From TrEMBL:
InterPro entries: Porin_dom_sf
Protein name: Porin
Transmembrane annotation, as ranges: none
Listed Low complexity bias regions: 64-73
SUPFAM superfamilies membership: Porins
Record key words, sorted: Signal
Region (Disordered) location: 45-95
Length: 493
C-alpha cells in the first residue's frame, strides 16, 4: 500500500511538471482542475486493482498442515493449532450485551468444526412375514401387523468433528434411525460425543459418551464402510451395535519390534442395566443383550442403576501390515444391588492380502443370575416360556474379494474409474443367545452372499441374498426358515 501511494505521488509530480512545460499559457486554476481529475482517475484505478488482488496471507500460512493428531490418521486442514489471535479477548463471563451475547463463542472468530456424516436406505424382501409394520395385532393373521417386504431409511447419522488445539480434539455422532417417522417412534440418540486430550502416541485421554471397544465391528460399523447391508448376528444380539456408554479412560499405540504395532483402549464407564423398575429381568433369548445397553436403560436421565461401574478394553496386535488380531473384554454389574455381573469376551481378526480380505469376530457372554428376578423368583422369558438365559456365544466369518474388470473401465471410463471397485462377499453367521438350553429362538444360522459397487470409496450400492437356515420370527415368536433379498445404498457426505 505504501508503494502504491508513492507511485501515485510520482505520477502527480510528473503530470505537474509536464503540464507546466506544455501549457504555460493556461491559468493555474485550469491546470489544477486537470491534475485533480487525473489524480482521481488514478485513485479509482488503484482501488479496482486492490479489489482484484487475492487477500493477503497470514504469516502462519507457510506452515505445513499438521495431521499427526488427526483421529484414525485422517488428514485435516491446518487448524490443529489454537487459531485464536492475540486480538481476541479471552473467554469471560463479563461479556456484555443482550441479543449479541449468543455470538460470544470462540468458534465464531476462529471456526474449527467439520460437519459430515452418512446415510443409508435399504429394501428387503423376505420369504416370510417377519417385518413388524404396526398395522395391526402383530402375528394375529398373515399380513396383519406384519409384512414380508419394505423400504426403510435405516440411518441418517450426522458427524461433528473439531480440532480445538494441537492437543485437544472433539468428536461426536448423532444417530437418527427410521427418520421418516414422527414423535416417539423416531429413534434419536448421541451415539458418541467425547473430548480427547493428546499427550503422546502411547497414551491419550478420552472422556464423554464413548463407543465401547468390545470387538472391532462396534468401532467400525458405518453403513458405507461395510460390504453387506445387515450387521452380523453376533453384533445385533450379543454385542448390540452400537454399544456406547458415558465414561473416561485412555488409549494409545506402541511399536514393538521392527514391523509390529500394538493399539489399546481402556475405559471406566457407566455400566449395563438388565432390569425393569419393577425388578423383572430384561435380557432375553430373542433380544439378547440389546435391552441392557445404557441407551435403553429406563433410569431417569440415563443415570447409573447401581453403585458399580463397568470396565472395558481392547488390545490389538498387528505383526505386519494387513494382519491384525485383537482381544477385548467388558465387565460390569447390571442389577440395582451391584451383585449380578455381565461379562463379554471378544476375539476379532483382520487378514488382508492383495484384493482378498478375511475378517471375523467371536464373542462369549455370561449374565450371572439372569434366570432370577430381583425378588428371587424364576425369570421366565415370555417369548420362550423358559428361564431367561445366562450364557451366550456367537461368531461371524466373512470373506471379501475386491476387483474391477479392465473391460468395464475401457467401455465406460466415466462410470468405472480408477477409484471404482466391485466386491464379492460371503459371510457365515452363527449365534446362540441361550447356551443353557438346547435349541431355542436364539439359536440362529445364516449364510449371506453379496455383491456391491463403489463408484468411489465413500459411496456403495449393495445387493445380497440371505439364507436363513435357522431364523426367528419376532411377530409370531416362532422358529422359521427364511430367505431374503436385501438391496441398499449408503454414502458418506
Amino acid at each position: 500500500m505504501m508503494r502504491t501511494q508513492a507511485s501515485l505521488w510520482m505520477v502527480f509530480l510528473s503530470a505537474l511538471i509536464v503540464t507546466n512545460a506544455l501549457a504555460d499559457d493556461e491559468s493555474v486554476e485550469t491546470r489544477m482542475r486537470k491534475l485533480e481529475q487525473r489524480l482521481q482517475e488514478l485513485e479509482q484505478h488503484n482501488r479496482q486493482l486492490q479489489r482484484a488482488l487475492p487477500p493477503a496471507e497470514s504469516p502462519e500460512s507457510d506452515t505445513p498442515p499438521d495431521s499427526s493428531g488427526s483421529p484414525a490418521g485422517a488428514v485435516l486442514p491446518d487448524i490443529a493449532r489454537d487459531s485464536r489471535q492475540k486480538k481476541q479477548a479471552p473467554l469471560s463471563f463479563g461479556t456484555s450485551g443482550s441479543g449479541t451475547m449468543i455470538y460470544a463463542k470462540p468458534f465464531v472468530n476462529a471456526p474449527k468444526a467439520f460437519v459430515g456424516g452418512y446415510f443409508d436406505l435399504q429394501y428387503r424382501n423376505h420369504r416370510k412375514d417377519v417385518i413388524d409394520n404396526g398395522a395391526g395385532a402383530a402375528g394375529s393373521n398373515p399380513g396383519i401387523g406384519s409384512t414380508n417386504s419394505s423400504f426403510d431409511q435405516q440411518r441418517f447419522v450426522p458427524f461433528i468433528y473439531a480440532d480445538i488445539t494441537e492437543h485437544v480434539k472433539f468428536a461426536s455422532e448423532l444417530e437418527i434411525e427410521h427418520g421418516i417417522r414422527e414423535g416417539t417412534e423416531t429413534e434419536v440418540s448421541l451415539e458418541f460425543a467425547h473430548v480427547d486430550y493428546l499427550i503422546h502416541e502411547p497414551i491419550n485421554l478420552r472422556a464423554g459418551i464413548i463407543l465401547l471397544p468390545v470387538g472391532k465391528f462396534n468401532l467400525l460399523h458405518d453403513s458405507p464402510l461395510n460390504d453387506l447391508t445387515d450387521r452380523p448376528l453376533v453384533n445385533q444380539l450379543i454385542i448390540p451395535t452400537t454399544m456406547s456408554e458415558a465414561g473416561a479412560g485412555f488409549y494409545g499405540t506402541f511399536y514393538p519390534g521392527r514391523s509390529g504395532k500394538m493399539d489399546y483402549e481402556f475405559y471406566v464407564t457407566q455400566g449395563p442395566n438388565g432390569y425393569q423398575p419393577d425388578g423383572t429381568a430384561r435380557i432375553g433369548e430373542a433380544s439378547g443383550l440389546k435391552n441392557s445397553r445404557q441407551r435403553k436403560s429406563l433410569t431417569d436421565d440415563g443415570f447409573d442403576n447401581n453403585r458399580g461401574k463397568a470396565v472395558v478394553g481392547r488390545v490389538a496386535y498387528s505383526p505386519v501390515l494387513g494382519v491384525e488380531i485383537a482381544g477385548s473384554g467388558y465387565h460390569g454389574t447390571y442389577d440395582p444391588e451391584s451383585k449380578r455381573s455381565l461379562s463379554i469376551f471378544v476375539l476379532d481378526w483382520t487378514l488382508q492380502r492383495g484384493p482378498f480380505e478375511l475378517i471375523g469376530e467371536a464373542a462369549w457372554a455370561y449374565v450371572k443370575n439372569n434366570s432370577r428376578n430381583l425378588d428371587g423368583s424364576p425369570a421366565i422369558d415370555p417369548d420362550t416360556g423358559r428361564l431367561r438365559p445366562q450364557r451366550m456365544n456367537g461368531y461371524y466369518i466373512q470373506g471379501n474379494y475386491h476387483f474391477m474388470p479392465e473391460m468395464l473401465r475401457r467401455m465406460l471410463p466415466r462410470r468405472f474409474s480408477e477409484g471404482s471397485t466391485l466386491t464379492a462377499v460371503v459371510r457365515w453367521d452363527k449365534i446362540d443367545t441361550n447356551r443353557d438350553a438346547i435349541g431355542g429362538f436364539g439359536d440362529l444360522e445364516q449364510l449371506s452372499l453379496g455383491l456391491n459397487f463403489r463408484p468411489i470409496e465413500d459411496t456403495v450400492f449393495k445387493v445380497s441374498y440371505q439364507f436363513g437356515m435357522r431364523a426367528f420370527n419376532p411377530n409370531t415368536s416362532q422358529r422359521i426358515h427364511d430367505d431374503a433379498v436385501v438391496v441398499s445404498a449408503a454414502t458418506y457426505f
